[in-house]
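Hi C.,

You asked whether I'd gotten around to modeling the 496-residue construct. I have! Everything is below, sequence then structure, no commentary in between.
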Amino acid sequence: MTSLAHFEAIAGTIELPSQAVIGGKLCQAKSGMTFDNISPRNGQLINKIALCDDHDVDSAVAAARAAFDDSRWRNLHYREKKRIMFKLADLMERDLEKIALLESIDSGKPIRDTLAFDVPSAIRTLRYYTEALDKIYGEVGPETADRFSYAVHEPLGVIGAIMPWNFPLHLTMWKVAPALAMGNSIVVKPAELTSMTALKLGELALEAGVPAGVLNVVTGKGSVAGKAIALHMDVDMLTFTGSGPVGRMLMKYAADSNLKRVSLELGGKSPHIIFADCPDLDAAAAHAAFGVFYNQGEVCTAGSRLLVDEKIRDVFLEKIIASARDFVPGDPLAPETNFGAMVSESQLNAVLGFIETASKEGASLALGGKRVRKNSGGFYVEPTVFDAVAPGSTLSQEEVFGPVLAVTTFRDADEALRLANNTIFGLASGVWTRDISLAHRAAREIKAGLVWINGWDSCDITMPFGGFKQSGFGRDRSLHALYKYADLKSVSITIR
């Protein structure tokens, strides 16, 4: 039986990754500079991490290019690639508890979540794409008797992956696994706030036998190291998960450099619609609470707009508040904690600012709204529910990236779907109804890359993930993600 004391003991002895991984070696930044890595749990210094700049990025990209050009990975026999990548998955499983602890310390996530979801999901993703890498087939085209034509998938080259802080390892593996499976080299830039598990991944990759230069990890500021990757003339593709403003900058950098490909998974303001004929109000309330309070609301698919049929508004509001009370802020290293800390003081203050604005704009505070556990030194805010939120208000339109739910009522299906689409975003959505025709109508009319019927977040690695409108373009997960890291080449042979 694990305990807070158990995880605190491990935290006191575990080696904390702090060095970049470049060209098969662990190294400090060329400048010798570091940055402070602060714990969301208690506001204290965790360690000092290499502050990489454009010089370090140059070294990482050069190492990735050399590894790609000499074919040490892309032309390696598929059985050997699979052996190495499966070994990496095994090593991650061997160190699961330590990796989960690093993730929890770094991000403020509850250890129960990193142990049960974040790290196991990363491992499953790696195994999924490893299993797929020898099942990449080309096409034979219809031709005349004197010609043979075919199309083949070829790796792009050097991939630059710029990562967010909310699911550091899990989302990194969404990029790394398919990129490696397709035969590319990659340079990963983890979020400054949550770098340790990406660094650990780089270390384990070397132990597994991934050739030097194939997987590199550079740490530091997005405005420096991330920008250098995006502008680099020898990076063939950018893949990014994060905010809309940064996504726009990356597109500009891609255009200003070598017109590298860009795949963007950006923000969301996802609607969660509860129709009056909802088949199970208790289940819907539990899913709605999970959809916005899981991971402290720091989720791009958070169901932060709850649209409720006015006929069931009173009863459902009561149920959602009861479900919200099940999420209790606590020490991330305590196994019983299901709601941890915000990732940083800055993010905490941003969330509190949204709460203040919602109150000023006339929304009714039904639950929460305050910073808690301040004496811990950490960054905690309680689950918060606002009722009577106007569709055009700040809380209805802007991504909070925190545990704040906006409840709005509707009169009929037409209004519900109109409200659902009343956003610049289009990432995820949810619908609860018994009416199969209404379910299909909603799935067709909601402008979002993900539509969940009678559930929330109800699909896995086998289904594509990505958004419409200003939620970005390109897809993670599924075999669709595998092929985005490839070019398609047509070959025609004239028979003489």
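If it helps when you're writing up: The chain has 16 helices and 24 strands.

Thanks,
B.
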